Amino acid sequence: MALPGHENCVIRGQLRRSNQRRNSPSSLWFPVKSTGDAVFFFLSLVSSSPDWLRLCFTLCPSLSPPPPIRRGEMGERNGVRAENPRAVWDYCCCCLFMAPRIRWRWAPLGFLARSPSAVSFILGSLAASGLVAVAFFWLVISSSRRSDPTLLGCRPDSEGSWSVGVYYGKSPFSLSPIELVGLVMLSSSHWGSLHAYVLFMFCVSIVFIRDFGFASYYLVYLLHRIIVARKNVLLISHYLCFLNLTSNLKCFPQIYMMPEGNKKGQLRLYRAVNFPLKWTLEKVLIRKPLIDPSLIQYEGHYWLFASDFTRFGIEKNAELEIWYSSSPLGPWKQHPKNPIYRADKSLGARNGGRPFIYEGSLYRLGQDCGGTYGRRIQIYKVEKLNREEFKEVPVKLGIEEPKKGRNAWNGIRYHHLDTQQLPSGNWIAVMDGDRVPSGDSTTRFLLGCTFTLLLLLLVMSIGFLVGAVNCCVASSRRNESSWLRTRPHINLRARRYLAGMNRYGSSIRARVNPKTCSGKLVLSFLVLVGIAFACTSVHFLLGGSGAEEAYMFGGQYSQFTMVTMTYEARIWNLKLYVKHYSRCESVREIVVVWNKGKPPREDEFDSVVPVRIRVEEINSLNNRFKVDPLIKTRAVLELDDDIMMACDDIEKGFRVWRENPDRLVGFYPRLVDGSPLQYRNERYARGKNGYNVILTGAAFMDSEYAFKRYGSQEATEGRALVNQFFNCEDLLMNFLYSNASSERTVEYVHPAWAIDTSKLSTAAISRNTQVHYDIRTNCLSKFSALYGALPSKWEFASRADGWDR
Prior knowledge:
Helix 5 (116-141) runs antiparallel to helix 6 (440-466) and helix 15 runs parallel beside helix 16 (769-787). It is built from 16 helices and 37 strands. The two termini are 64 Å apart. Strand 22 (361-368) and strand 23 (376-385) form a beta hairpin. The longest helix has 27 residues, at 440-466. It folds into three domains: 119-140 and 437-475 and 496-547, no CATH class; 162-214 and 229-434, 5 Propeller (Tachylectin-2, Chain A), CATH 2.115.10; 560-787, Spore Coat Polysaccharide Biosynthesis Protein SpsA, Chain A. The strands form eleven sheets. It has a seven-stranded mixed sheet. Strands 6, 7, 8, 25 and 26 form a five-stranded antiparallel sheet that branches. By secondary structure, it is α+β, with helices and mostly antiparallel strands. InterPro entries: Exostosin, GINT1_N, Glyco_hydro_beta-prop_sf, GT64_dom, Nucleotide-diphossugar_trans. It is found in: Membrane. This is Glucosamine inositolphosphorylceramide transferase 1. Pathway: Sphingolipid metabolism; Lipid metabolism.
């Protein structure tokens, strides 16, 4: 194949010296088929003679006549014989600057240069995919990305983002989350859960120190393993603390700590000099890389349970061994049955906390690591433990399994529990937990890269089907690409495979004709698959763990009760509603206000939180705000059963309400203004850039304040109007809030998405929009006469976090 204007420049073969004039430095065999080969030759030439570099720059712009051409002696292959350096450089320039005008044969990625349409199609397709990915990120991912400043320094790593929960009960086998047993330790606006995040935590341990000034109180210290985020420095490893109270109660008790020292190959004992901040090394107990050591005194001996994964033939997280001594300072001896476990990591061999004694029996905690590291805690009752024998049997832990999956702080795994008995006889415990499995970030990255690669292959396939990309070789030997003929290391099987690809590819292209209806349908389907690949790739790479977590406020988490009002014709909506929202992390209970018809059974719902059906005698919208003494949380989310939103948006609204518990915080803003007052939709409020009403069909409120005020004597006339129009209960609540305070009483949170499921059924309460708006406009005039005017307005996008944009 010749260059235009240089018909004698045959481009073929490889760079090599002529067989006939092997010793002549000015005679080179220089057949070339690509710009890359020319550049390679040029660099080789310059490196051998600096003088040729100046000559090249002098001669290159002139593109002097081509060097003499004659047939070489490489069989049927043509070549170029350069008799002098200038001829060689002219040939180099010819290849470098004329190569873009060559009609290329197939080579690796050569099809991109063969046709500008191929490059244009691929770049255009990738650009379109990028726009889809950006749109998906903006509309879906960005709304759930955390900007909570309280979480700085508590980021997930390759092993997840562990949390610590506090439990309380009458025995170590009847423990419940402390927020569910009536021990409210927070201010009145922060009822709820007491679990808190740590950056990286393998275990927690409780130390009780009596405050001798007030003998009835105890201080509880939680020590845990933590890694500094920036330096990745291990501060305190897995540890064990045990107390040695002296006979003089005025003296501070001796406290010891036994950190895990497997990386140092030593098990060390430390004594507290200034608890809990300063420790000193007391003694090296055992010179072995023991993991998760736990010590307890039982029947005259000290027993040490630990794991040594350096033993030959041991499966990780599946080994347990026992050591014993007459003193915690040693010397320590191995149990003759070591290792107790060695092969099955789901048996709870690795320790999951300190052993404890309950009603005279010894219990050991272990980790079930089947499936993922630290998946569950198992508890064993030790039936025999002496210097010759050991036997234990599994027993039920008694802690209710989390049911909210990744939306719960310990929904995927929990692997360490530490419990102590209080002077009252009750028990307190701390347990860690994580919402993602081990290695989740790595798995998500690999999946994201996989879907990105699939997207690229799909783009190439679509380009091939529409004829924009053609990268297959000819099937006949005569027309076979020179790229194959010049590479004998590619065997015959590969040649047949590539040739087969060409035959089948041509057949597929003939059948999928973009000009036919079937061809357009196939291509449309592939485009949709490509969109799905782009969105899925962004989801795995940038979407986080997929958990819709609660938002911390004031260093604490909390919970709320959901209240919805419905009747028998909307049972389908209600079941979908309960299944979805019961899995939001901060939801404690769902109360269904049943206004009409035969109520369903509570066990009919697929719920992971308690569902309570409150049957009303009268079908009234006022029932929504009836005082309910069975509600245990201060925060209540009134949410219609036909509204579906993401749990993350619900959690945002709850966080905003906790900041301002004296306000109505909701997701549907309205601006009521004009003379006379007129009810309009959200579009009007957006146009005026302000709102002064929040619809209580989707709003957080203070259950004590809001319900009592709505049921007060002052609201009697308003409730009568609600019954008369069977409408406007949400407007009445806004007027009652506004009438009681001169401060701001409403706040808006923008949901990422919201679906009205009533549109999918015939059970909508207010299907005629115009009639609905006219009734509400009438309500506005009557309420304003009874309770005064509403405030002017508050603007959108006033929050620094942008949640009200």
